[in-house]
């Protein structure tokens, strides 16, 4: 397993549920966690609510400071944000965990993405970064719940840069209970992002916080 | 759990690996299994190799006879075959388990499908049938292996007809070790089909026969 000891982690959109949940778990694991938001003030509030030494700041500032940057913003603002951070993210591992979903009366469904997936969109914008897709299926509720010691989930990690996917698999395993499992190349990210719609359907039918485990691995 | 006792099951494309593996497990569970193929003779050979009372015949004949019809043909011939069987499949539960995938040097990838997914294509063609999507991720190797007593897999079952998805969940559970888990509406079938490409990548990386389990359900 790749050694990720000492890596600092920024989370763009870290004031949202998914981002805040990840920030909390990485901070608990002892990592320097920088929560990013359009508003530095709201980022600092979110960091304060997490504790464990997490700090907050404007997206550009935390992106420039951190070793690894997780993108957990709503899909609507995804492309524009990344376009504005090309310089700050150059040379870094950027972990996209955005799920492009729409919602209507029948529940969630996958939105079409011109580049194929949010992760491929990130790679198209961030040509100087090492884009990895991961953390799509984490339950924010479970990540935030102090009573949940172990999260019963395999995080599928996708990308075309082996060293980068190995690093992100190791980051995933900072969350107790979680395994990081290589899930394929970036061109196969769409279905992993879109599968979140199915998990939402499962959650509704079974009153669950469903996750996935990969068998025989 | 819905009672599926006594239901006869036809498998179109039952001479292929996935179809034959499913046929074998349903026959072992005591169901009447009818293997379909373009060639009745090849279907009969496949049925003979499975044993447990499985019979073989031309696709149209087994489709007409069975209570439930599983579609396990290659994607290339999928639409044309279903168009030719509209009458035979009318009123029946039709279980589509086709994965529209392409392959190149980098492995498997999802093919675009005009209707959104193979299952939605089936529903568009078979307007008088009750189309359900399921069995995409079963490993033919594990289904065929006499040494594999239990298959460690949740079968995601998708569809818009609750009674039909309940029936197919129960059929999935005829395979020892398997759970049938409702996975959402048919409009969310694409990503379940496409995820087979990721499982192929996982199999290659980990030398595994990977499947999925849904946690907290």
UniProtKB/TrEMBL annotation, chains A, B:
Residues 9-100 form the Pyrroline-5-carboxylate reductase catalytic N-terminal domain. It comes from the Bacteria. Gene3D superfamilies: NAD(P)-binding Rossmann-like Domain. InterPro entries: NAD(P)-bd_dom_sf, NpdG, P5C_Rdtase_cat_N, STEAP_metalloreductase. It holds the Pfam family F420_oxidored. Keywords: Oxidoreductase. PANTHER family: DUDULIN-RELATED, F420-DEPENDENT NADP REDUCTASE. This is NADPH-dependent F420 reductase. It comes from Nonomuraea spiralis.
